[in-house]
Amino acid sequence: MAGTTARRSARGTAAYRCSECGWQTAKWVGRCGECQAWGSVGETGGVTARTSATTVERPAVPIGEVDLTRAAARPTGVAEFDRVLGGGLVPGAVVLVAGEPGIGKSTLLLDVAGRAARSGEHGERRVLYVSGEESAAQVRSRAERIEAMARTLYLASETDLGTLLGQVEQVEPELLVVDSVQTISSAEVEGSAGNVAQVREVAASLIQVAKARGIAVLLVGHVTKDGSIAGPRVLEHLVDVVVQFEGDRHSRLRLVRAVKNRYGPTDEVGCFDLSDVGIVGLTDPSGLFLSGRTASVPGTCVTVTLEGRRPLVTEVQALVTASSLATPRRATSGLDAARVNMVLAVLDKRAQAPIGGSDAYLSTVGGVRLTEPAADLAVTLALAGAITDRPLPGGTVAFGEVGLAGEVRPVTGAHRRLAEAARLGFTRAVVPPGVLGAGPVPEGISVLEVGTVAEAVGRALHDVPGR
């Protein structure tokens, strides 16, 4: 009887752990509650031993005596990438670069590796590029095509974590690029490469090496079908910087934005042009999003959107035609369909626009995607121009958020948007109320404040001068 009680007591204190992600539970279950893997939960048994104190090798120092030079960013040679990172790569920093397949992650990081290898303090520095998806010959072929060759750029094709760490020991690089973290596996961890436990082990080992040796590490990460970063969310918490690579596969424009950044801002965006000869940074990308025509056409309106802190001038085009269907069609490209439907409803209700029985098609120029509410007013005026077959006066831009009550609401960065529009030669801006009183207006541009959608449609299309 005593033996049975002892066994029950031991069984009651036993813990169960998932071999895939490390999730623990007090009782056995067939499916992991964290990673949803079947049959991965096993008994660990006993009580977890407590960690005892060890000898301190690097004692704590007063905060005023901490050396700030170790956290100084070093430029990579790619200005747009440095803009997103906050000036460059900090020694010991681990950066996760995520994006869809074929969008240009490997091309960008190989360009960064080549430029970094040629931009050291003494003319060059060691850079190690480890590819788990391509052979070294394939990487060299791309490097020659994009002119990323450098004498101190080392290439290796490895998928084993231990061998990768051995390469780091041998080369002693200042920058390490791993493409990708999901292709590297450790022999000490069960499971195939890419599963939760493997990704966690690989990331933890690389972070430890980066912090101990002062090596900047760039990790390429895959994404899932919904666009989120593949693997455990702990991967995003462990790294110092998370960079998202965005863009339409059928367009040459690529946007790089920081989702997380311990060393700089997260409101900066880098713009790149992906071509046959590689990826080139765009310091002034606004011209890509304009049609380039000189004559005014009904159904078009230019807006100024803010990508981070960078203003981008973008053209919105609308086409409204009579529908032969019982339910009129609504099609969008580069715009949020939900917001477009809302603007259509506001036009119908608040401005008495005859839109109910017509098909509506809306698109942006250049493949850019507008999700900012500030583009609502431009969408409204483009639709109004398409319905009335009346173009906006030349040189007009519009920005402002549209509410369900038909009001035009203020948006952030209004004067930054006006300055960009004036720089590109626009002479007239349709804006929400309060812009004129918030600060000086750039020279060469007149401002037309509108408070409602009906007022915006009436005044903008009839070319009523602003104050």
Describe what this molecule looks like in 3D.
40% of the residues are buried. Strand 1 (16-18) and strand 2 (24-25) form a beta hairpin. Mean pLDDT is 87; it is low at 1-13. The longest helix has 18 residues, at 196-213. The protein has three domains: 10-43; 73-283, Rossmann fold, CATH 3.40.50; 288-461, Ribosomal Protein S5, domain 2, CATH 3.30.230.10. The strands form five sheets. Strands 6-5-7-8-4-9-10-11-12 form a nine-stranded mixed sheet, sandwiched between helices. A four-stranded mixed sheet has the order 13-14-16-15. A three-stranded antiparallel sheet has the order 2-1-3, with no helix packed on it. The radius of gyration is 28 Å and the shape is elongated. With 467 residues, it is of the alpha/beta class. It has helices at 2-13, 79-85, 105-117, 136-145, 161-171, 196-213, 234-238, 337-350, 376-388, 414-423, 435-438, 453-461; strands spanning 16-18, 24-25, 41-43, 94-99, 127-131, 153-157, 175-179, 216-221, 241-246, 253-261, 269-275, 278-281, 300-307, 310-322, 330-333, 358-364, 396-398, 401-402, 408-409, 428-431, 446-449. The N and C termini lie far apart (95 Å). Helix 8 (337-350) crosses helix 9. It has twelve helices and 21 strands.
Uncertain runs: 1-13
Radius of gyration: 28 Å
Strand order of the largest sheet: 6-5-7-8-4-9-10-11-12
What is the CATH H-level superfamily of the largest domain?
Answer: P-loop containing nucleotide triphosphate hydrolases
CATH-level-2 architecture of the largest domain: 3-Layer(aba) Sandwich
- Mind describing the biggest β-sheet? 9 strands, mixed
Sum up the overall morphology in one term: elongated
- How much of the sequence is in beta strands? 15-25%
Family: Belongs to the RecA family. RadA subfamily.
Protein name: DNA repair protein RadA
Organism: Phycicoccus duodecadis
Pfam families: AAA_25, Zn_ribbon_LapB
